[in-house]
Specification:
It is a single chain. By secondary structure, the protein is of the alpha/beta class. It folds into 2 domains: 2-142 and 340-376, ATPase, nucleotide binding domain (Nucleotidyltransferase, domain 5, 2-Layer Sandwich); 147-333, ATPase, nucleotide binding domain (Nucleotidyltransferase, domain 5, 2-Layer Sandwich), CATH 3.30.420. The protein has 12 helices and 12 strands. Strands 1, 2, 3, 4, 5, 6 and 12 form a 7-stranded mixed sheet that branches. The chain has a 5-stranded mixed sheet with strand order 9-8-7-10-11, sandwiched between helices.
């Protein structure tokens, strides 16, 4: 079955699309990537999304306009990736605006903007959306969801392997080996903390909105990370919580950046960007060290995906700080670095129509496995 996956992450730079053909066993399908593309949001729309996710208040009509525009751009991305309309199903994540993991004080909830019935009508295909709600209703974090499908796309080999996604937020997947004592272990996964969110916001602030991100890490490359500041930051409470855990721009957004800017007030712009970028790499290294302390798990390889994989300075920092690991890009396994999440939501949509439960207590903390997503049909 041909399925189109559509994904826009917390960086809100646009929509990644992937068309995949699935066949065979539901839990371990054969798959073939047929096409991928990216569709950038206009600057004005991206700014509106980022402002809303940082607390900008909209009236009811403005909310409807934003929802409609995001839905239309998902349709444009779908047409671009599948111009012949050969896909039979669409899995669409929508645009995350706010994510609230469950705590003792309140239930978990997550807001992804999308008008799914309109998208189904525009595309004239069934659309599966709202993937996080069922997991959250069952006591889970609702995130990260991509680790649930990594084993299908990557498979198991001789040794634990880590997959790192560097979007707005950094998250890790740990895939067990196919032999030995850990061969019966389940896939693990969690959010580490900020990846591109703080760096992107800092770049926008320093350039008065002319730039949205540090292309190729060129600005960071001109600076020197402040290791004393990084060592202070990585000691914060969230970074030492055991999984399951998830986070978003609500926690690591503009307010958090301004606090960190105070710590870096004596640094040059280049050193500030280098420090924020190296901070992400150190968080990942620390999480892998803590994993080994908790569970005696030490991956032999770190595979990197997401927009941050194109940041050369960040990749160098990962190599420097994740000692003893082979660090490479996920595309070595035939998965383009920007396509992994779109692939994931294509598979989650296919699982939905096949009534396959895919939530995981080890990853999200959900009480039980449930079918993720809601399907709507065109009229």
């Amino acid at each position: 079955m041909r399925v189109l996956g559509l994904m826009s992450g917390t960086s809100a730079d646009g929509i990644d699309a992937a068309m995949v053909d699935f066949s065979g066993r539901i839990n371990k399908p054969k798959w073939k990537l047929l096409n991928i593309c990216s569709y950038e949001y206009p600057r004005s729309l991206r700014k509106r999304i980022l402002d809303v996710s940082q607390g900008l208040k909209l009236d009811s009509e403005e909310w409807l306009d934003l929802e409609e525009r995001i839905t239309e751009f998902n349709a444009y991305a779908a047409f671009k990736c599948d111009p012949l309309k050969s896909s039979q199903l669409v899995g669409c994540h929508g645009q995350t605006i706010f994510h609230r993991p469950p705590t003792k004080k309140h239930r978990g909830s997550s807001l992804q903007i999308l008008r799914a019935p309109l998208l189904a009508q525009l595309l004239q295909r069934p659309v599966v959306y709202d993937f996080r709600a069922a997991d959250l209703a069952n006591g889970g974090q609702g995130a990260p969801l991509v680790p649930l499908v990594d084993e299908v796309f990557i498979g198991r080999e001789c040794g634990w392997r880590a997959i790192l996604n560097l979007g707005g937020i950094a998250n890790l997947t740990l895939i067990p080996p196919n032999q030995g004592m850990d061969s019966s272990a389940q896939v693990l996964g969690w959010d580490c903390g900020p990846a591109n969110t703080l760096v992107d916001l800092a770049i926008q602030e320093f350039t008065q909105g002319r730039l949205f991100f540090d292309k190729d890490g060129s600005i960071a490359q001109s600076g020197i990370p402040d290791e004393l500041i990084i060592s202070k930051w990585i000691d914060e409470y969230f970074f030492h919580l055991p999984p399951p855990k998830s986070t978003g721009r609500e926690q690591f957004g503009a307010n958090d950046l301004h606090k960190r800017m105070t710590d870096m007030s004596h640094l040059s712009i280049e050193d500030k960007i280098a420090t924020l970028t190296a901070f992400t790499a150190q968080l990942v290294a620390q999480d892998l060290i803590n994993l080994n302390k908790r569970s005696k798990i030490r991956p032999i390889e770190l595979l990197v995906a997401g927009g941050g994989a194109q940041n050369l300075f960040l990749m160098k920092q990962l190599v420097l700080r994740c000692k003893g690991l082979r660090v490479s890009k996920l595309q070595r396994y035939g998965i383009p670095v920007l396509a992994r999440e779109a692939l994931a939501f294509a598979l989650l949509a296919w699982w939905n129509i096949n009534n396959y439960s895919s939530a995981s207590k080890q990853i999200t903390g959900a009480h039980k496995s449930v079918v993720l997503g809601v399907k709507v049909n065109p009229f």
